[in-house]
């Protein structure tokens, strides 16, 4: 323990926003138990790594981070704790042999190991990113069994978090000054089905929008398999829900989708996007695609490119296929070479850059709402428009006069006029 004052903890949390939510609850409990957060691992009594292990690079990053922090333990009285997906995927016993430097391995949702009643989930969190947006994890686990995915074996079957708990957690975030709630889960579309709620997501959103705060809501990870026109109609009618939808399609060719065990057609996805855009021309879509899945020959890849040209997603993320141990796809043939995956990634990103730029250029002259995040210079602020999710899309640079600047503060939701486009980002001025 530190010679003076409270014990100190240095933490690193890796991976997705869902993992971050878990660890923000853990941090809140550590503070309640008397720990002080430090940014210097040298002075910490406790070193803690919350890991991701979804794909090979995440596993390697987790191990590298653990070994890096283990260096601070040499000849010092420090403890090193590892939690999260790495433990859940490989198990404590195997990891103890691999990483003897670690004092204790904990699984996912590490706050459970700090709560005296193990079934009590904290609703208080210590936000680790910008204080004006916060992720609300509405589901845990997944039951889809996509052939390439390790999530079911790491985080278990799909289960919705109780609505009452989510409303309380949302209220706590909003009371702290959060102005954008971002709903996340492995499949947010299915929220509440396991609790007997056919339209659980819409019911949850209706109650969230009634909370007495000025804020907006963004929804990520809407699985295309369960979407239909009514959902888009209802979502676009809720005043606090921004017209932004994340549809992780992974691929478009029917043969590859079947091999991935993903049950929808490219025609259906295009029809749903067309429906939403007719309801609200300002609606924006984001997706992710996987390249180099076994059997993706040039024909299937070209089909994907043509689909992306037709769909015109506003933003898109790309990652290569990794044959993950324990998944059905790990043994599929024929394999695609690493070099070919890289070539295809470059081609997709080049195409998407052109699409994104054109989609953003169509917004020039229009007015949009921006959440101001920070001031970057005396006359420039940075924020997020409704068509920009934090950390994965572009940002909005707000240029203003010093006179107007005094009225704009981080944390405000303001109207801006889109003036220029810089590929993924936009430049805007206050609409006053």
Shape: globular
Query: Radius of gyration, Cα only, in angstroms?
Result: 22 Å
* Helical content (DSSP H or I, runs of 4+): 25-40%
Characterize the largest beta sheet: strand count, sense, and whether it forms a barrel.
6 strands, parallel
**Gap between N and C termini:** 55 Å
Sequence stretches where pLDDT stays below 50 over 5 or more residues: none
| Sheet/helix structural class | alpha/beta
Q: Give average pLDDT, whole number.
A: 93
Strand order of the largest sheet: 6-9-10-11-12-13
Beta-strand proportion: 15-25%
The overall strand count is 18
- What is the tally of helical segments? 13
Question: Which structural traits does this protein have?
Answer:
single chain; 432 residues; alpha/beta; six-stranded parallel beta sheet; five-stranded parallel beta sheet; 22% strand
């Amino acid at each position: 323990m530190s010679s003076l004052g409270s014990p100190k903890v240095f933490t690193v949390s890796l991976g997705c926003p869902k993992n971050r939510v878990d660890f923000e609850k853990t941090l809140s409990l550590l503070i309640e138990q008397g720990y002080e957060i430090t940014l210097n691992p040298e002075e910490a009594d406790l070193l803690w790594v919350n890991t991701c292990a979804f794909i090979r690079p995440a596993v390697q990053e987790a191990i590298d981070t653990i070994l890096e922090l283990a260096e601070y333990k040499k000849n010092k009285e420090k403890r090193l704790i590892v939690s999260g997906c790495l433990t859940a995927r490989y198990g404590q016993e195997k990891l103890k042999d691999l990483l003897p430097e670690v004092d204790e391995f904990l699984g996912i949702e590490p706050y459970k190991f700090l709560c005296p009643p193990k079934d009590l989930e904290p609703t208080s969190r210590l936000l680790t990113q910008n204080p004006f947006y916060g992720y609300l994890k509405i589901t845990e686990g997944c039951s889809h069994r996509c052939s390439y995915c390790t999530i079911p074996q790491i985080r278990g079957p799909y289960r919705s978090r109780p609505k009452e708990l989510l409303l309380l957690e949302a209220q706590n975030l909003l009371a702290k000054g959060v102005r954008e709630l971002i709903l996340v889960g492995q499949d947010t579309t299915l929220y509440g089905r396991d609790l007997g709620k056919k339209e659980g997501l819409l019911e949850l959103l209706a109650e969230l929008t009634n909370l007495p705060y000025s804020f907006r809501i963004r929804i990520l990870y809407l699985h295309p398999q369960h979407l239909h026109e009514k959902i888009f109609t209802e979502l676009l009618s809720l005043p606090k829900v921004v017209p932004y939808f994340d549809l992780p399609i992974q691929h478009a060719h029917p043969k590859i989708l079947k091999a991935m065990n993903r049950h929808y057609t490219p025609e259906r996805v295009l029809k749903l996007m067309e429906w939403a855009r007719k309801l609200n021309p300002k609606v924006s879509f984001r997706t992710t695609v996987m390249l180099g899945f076994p059997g993706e020959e040039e024909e299937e890849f070209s089909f994907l490119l043509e689909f992306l040209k037709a769909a015109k997603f506003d933003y898109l993320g790309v990652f290569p296929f990794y044959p993950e141990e324990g998944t059905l796809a790990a043994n599929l043939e024929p394999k695609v070479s690493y070099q070919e995956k890289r070539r295809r990634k470059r081609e997709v990103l080049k195409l998407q850059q052109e699409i994104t730029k054109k989609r953003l250029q169509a917004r020039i002259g229009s007015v949009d709402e921006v959440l101001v995040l920070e001031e970057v210079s005396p006359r420039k602020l940075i924020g997020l428009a409704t068509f920009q999710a934090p950390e994965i899309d572009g940002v909005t640079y707000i240029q203003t006069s010093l006179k107007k600047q005094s009225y704009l503060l981080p944390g405000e939701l303001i109207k801006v006029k889109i003036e220029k486009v810089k590929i993924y980002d936009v430049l805007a001025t206050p609409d006053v």
